[in-house]
Design brief:
This protein has 161 residues and is α+β, with helices and mostly antiparallel strands. It contains 5 helices and 3 strands; from the N terminus they run αβαααββα. It has helices spanning 14-31, 38-55, 60-70, 73-86, 143-160, and strands at 33-37, 95-102, 109-115. It has a 3-stranded antiparallel sheet with strand order 1-3-2, with helices on one face. The protein is globular.
């Protein structure tokens, strides 16, 4: 039974799993968005979010703790200097996992893991397009505007004469 056993094994030994998660989290911190399989993405979220929380308070002790997990000086400095500053007012939930579909080679389910504060996709206009049940009849001009158009045509013809 798996009582109190947290996390997925990902078909790896403990040292290989630790190295995989460290590598994925380093790539996520540097690139802000990565594509991986869904189980790795879900485990990565559990691995990297506590690191971002630790990076919110910039002390040498916290830097050493994060470095012991990542083993990459550039990723640690980028995490503390840039990523943590953007996530400062957020109380958690720093990452987003979006399902992509299935990989064609082995049919593995793929996902995108991204840092929420670095969302490059702009939301669509807040103005919603008005939908009608009359299939386009709402775009017709009213009678008063049609009479104005006919008046303008008469004015232009009278000016030409």
């Amino acid at each position: 039974m798996r009582h109190l056993k947290k996390g997925k094994k990902l078909s790896r030994t403990p040292s290989h799993r630790k190295a995989t998660l460290a590598s994925l989290s380093t790539a996520l911190i540097k690139e802000h968005r990565i594509v991986t399989t869904l189980p790795k993405a879900k485990e990565l979220r559990r691995f990297v979010e506590p690191l971002i929380t630790k990076a919110k308070t910039d002390t040498s002790h916290k830097r050493r703790q994060v470095f012991s997990k990542l083993n990459d000086k550039q990723a640690v400095s980028h995490l503390f200097d840039e990523v943590a500053q953007k996530a400062m007012d957020r109380p958690g939930g720093y990452t987003r996992v979006v399902k992509l579909g299935y990989r064609s080679g082995d049919d593995a389910q793929m996902a995108v893991v991204e840092l929420v504060d670095y969302n490059d996709i702009k939301p669509k206009d807040s103005k919603k397009k008005k939908r009608t049940r009359r299939a386009g009849k709402s775009t017709k001009t009213t009678g008063s505007s049609q009479s104005e158009k006919s008046d303008n045509k008469q004015d232009s013809t009278s000016e030409e004469e």
